[in-house]
Write a sequence for this structure.
């Protein structure tokens, strides 16, 4: 393994877990050659003519799928912290004496701390996906055998589509399915909305297992996952813990600081002329984002403006705007509450999307580049507007990338962030981990001022006569440091514990082991 | 080129248009090796960030797509005899001086007689698709430069998916689309229901052009064709002639002979115990099929039976049964009338399907093997129940295969056919062209008796004490010949003008040039 300085100045390895890697070459610079993953041709003659692909247990399905040492296994985060299937899969793998598996979740949650024992015992070699919370801590401490690889939702689709990651066995937990394998997330007691994060796996994995606690006779309509891509189906008592499925912040913030951030962000969008008839936006979950959506609603009502579409993460506030007619369509990648689930089930204008339609950078375009305004978070931002979303300022890997990188490709990207967290400034000379290149980040909104990326002269011009507290990012940094002092530099070990992929599969940065 | 006797006794070539071929090896016997077609990886960086892929004309789109001699071009029959785009595409190709193109329509109609001039002038080398009516006559006369290849709807998906046919440029005419290329068939003045026949092309063609006369702002919802697979979009005055889109017989038959066939078929299904709670059926279009659907409805109402699903071709009668609650779902591959279009647009239980979900033999199962009862037609049947659906008894190629072969894989296949047509017996020692192996054809219903395939002992047992006029197929044949005389054998030239593919891509039979 050799380290190479990539186009954003970070030293990244040319190899990860024994596979050659390409360093980040700049936004839109890396042009993939070659073809998408070619999957084996199947024959209907090898599948049950009556369409009944049921097996009595996940264990049997894993054995029939040919589970063996070193395989790559995928699961998905549609049930978020209420997922119980991923843990069961690796319990079975451990029981069967498997070693060196690679786990490719679409995201991980605290409930997956259960898997640390298998990372320790060698059942799981490494994780390619998000390493949140306890798994992130474990990784940061250098305890994972292999090197973790973090990808965005779109990057995960890209990697599977392009054959960078070959999934041997995909286990798709579904709120409703039929014995043939058609499955959806809009009905059943574990309804989570949609199953888009499993799309790539269903299309490209060698073996696909659908697990459900609500088996209905064929046809399961709608079929968000197509049974024609499925090998086996399994009926279980429970696929997820309903009350934990809809987690995350689903209430608008009541914190005065966050409300201020939200109001300033919405006001910026308004005064910069971004909120106009037919516009589109994506705000995501979290109290601040939800509040911004509400402020958008107020502005739209006042001005008689309608949005053509909002990208979800949907929630009750967005659904309300759809039903009120303020938004014509919700193009939804993930429902964050039960109102989102209901609306997707009932309203044809609330449409499920997938990382393929919305985020995949290696397609013939994607939805996200068309979105006018995107509101995102960040743990740190540097003076070039480069931002971090995976590590905290203590250097520990604590978040996945989610759709964050993909959303950066939207027309205007706004990060409402507090100027400091726990008295640690968020704007720094250098971020701990670069997840997004500054050229794609347009506006930083803090409680003490708004910084516009100098590249966005149009936004600078549009707001220069406004009453908004526009400042330079340098000014904001100094202001924070005047209050909190300059943050100490974190000391890392040399060892690379995880790599951050850019949306095109190149390596934009790495995470190093924290010093004891 | 060498001729080989295939598993059903027909002499078929080992090569067609310079490509190696596999002879039919028996139902379920040919196991494909290798992988699906691998398509080039694209980059979002090469597509407009605002999602606007519009070009001013089809001509410009073809030029930008790199149209050149020898390329394979596909169009689709969603507008049936009201299609105007396929003709325009080849007018442009001729104007640009193109030669030796291969046309891969999902089906052809009499409106495509316009293309005969290009088959004559060498713009089109040969057709892979259906050669109906005038194009069939032209082909049968040995006038096409290359050899025609006929595939079922499922076989077309299989061939494109497996890379047997590589589409260079797909032109998808759509009733509604957005500039990004999302498209559907349920809205717009040319609404035709769905666009499933273009799915394979959108997924596997090098260049995909969507043409519409109803361009809406992004997003076009639902997106039956995904803009993420589309290269260019073109807005035109008109994509189809609405009054010709909904063609075919859309009224139940009033012919007493056909009504008798329909009633006998329905009565057979009833007495054989095939019509039971939760069953499924596919009847298709055509006066007799529509009548059978109606008779099914009567039986179901009388017995309080509900069907779990009906496969469409949908029509107003099927829609009525759905709305009445006699059918829970319509899984629809093609809407045959405007009621079908309306229902698909409005009713979530009337779902669009594709040749991938329903018919593709090289997937992990398909819908059609799960259908309980399928009603189909045939031009000829032999004593082994082998049937012909593409040539008439005069040897001329006049029909495409459609979904006919695919439907043979259903649980029970019933062919209601008249014992003779124009005083020519339909049951023969040998059919002109074998399109479907007799082992898959279960029941022949004629106005003078019903023959059950000896392989279906269960059906023979179930109906042996019924009042149905059960006879052997030999008896039926003799009865026809007593009335009409034994048909003369047709004389053919040696030249092979077209080949018939089985659902797995092997050659089941050929069509030879007719003698002058």
């Amino acid at each position: 393994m050799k380290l190479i300085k990539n186009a954003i100045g970070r030293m990244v390895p040319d190899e990860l877990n024994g596979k050659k890697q390409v360093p980040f070459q700049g936004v839109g610079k890396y042009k993939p050659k070659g073809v998408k993953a070619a999957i084996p041709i199947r024959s209907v003659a090898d599948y049950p003519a009556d369409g009944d692909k049921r097996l009595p247990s996940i264990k049997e399905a894993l054995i029939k799928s040919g589970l063996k040492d070193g395989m790559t296994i995928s699961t998905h985060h549609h049930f978020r912290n209420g997922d119980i299937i991923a843990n069961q899969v690796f319990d079975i793998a451990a029981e069967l004496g498997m070693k060196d598996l690679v786990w490719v979740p679409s995201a991980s949650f605290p409930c997956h701390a259960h898997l640390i024992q298998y990372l320790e015992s060698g059942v799981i070699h490494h994780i390619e996906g998000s390493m949140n919370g306890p798994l992130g801590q474990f990784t940061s401490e250098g305890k994972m055998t292999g090197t973790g690889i973090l990808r965005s939702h779109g990057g995960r689709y890209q990697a599977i589509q392009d054959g960078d990651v070959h999934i041997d066995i995909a286990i798709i937990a579904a709120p409703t399915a039929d014995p043939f394998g058609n499955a959806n997330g809009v009905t059943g007691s574990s309804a989570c909305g949609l199953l888009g994060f499993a799309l790539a796996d269903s299309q490209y994995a060698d073996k696909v297992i659908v697990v459900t606690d609500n088996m209905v006779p064929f046809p399961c309509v709608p079929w968000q996952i197509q049974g024609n891509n499925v090998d086996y189906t399994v009926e279980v008592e429970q696929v997820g813990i309903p009350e934990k499925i809809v987690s995350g912040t689903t209430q608008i913030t009541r914190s005065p600081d966050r409300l201020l951030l939200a109001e300033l962000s919405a006001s910026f969008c308004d005064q910069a002329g971004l909120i106009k008839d037919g516009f589109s936006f994506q705000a995501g979950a979290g109290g601040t984002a939800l509040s911004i959506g509400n402020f958008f609603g107020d502005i739209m009502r006042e001005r008689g403006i309608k949005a053509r579409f909002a990208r979800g993460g949907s929630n009750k506030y967005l659904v309300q705007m759809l039903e009120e007619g303020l938004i014509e369509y919700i193009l939804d990648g993930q429902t964050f509450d039960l109102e989102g689930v209901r609306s997707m089930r009932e309203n044809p204008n609330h449409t499920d999307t997938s990382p393929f339609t919305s985020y995949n950078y290696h397609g013939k375009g994607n939805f996200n580049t068309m979105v006018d305004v995107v509101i995102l978070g960040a743990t740190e931002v540097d003076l070039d507007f480069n931002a971090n979303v995976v590590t905290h300022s203590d250097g520990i890997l604590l978040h996945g990338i989610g759709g964050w990188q993909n959303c950066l490709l939207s027309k205007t990207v706004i990060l409402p962030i507090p100027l400091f967290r726990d008295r640690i400034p968020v704007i720094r000379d250098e971020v701990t981990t670069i997840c997004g290149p500054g050229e794609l980040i347009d506006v930083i909104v803090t409680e003490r001022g708004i910084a516009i990326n100098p590249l966005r002269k149009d936004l600078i011009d549009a707001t220069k006569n406004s009453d908004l507290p526009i400042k330079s990012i340098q000014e904001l940094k100094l202001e924070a440091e005047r209050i909190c002092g300059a943050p100490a530099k974190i000391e890392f070990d040399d060892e690379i514990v995880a790599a951050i992929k850019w949306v095109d599969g190149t390596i934009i940065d790495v995470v190093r082991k924290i010093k004891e």
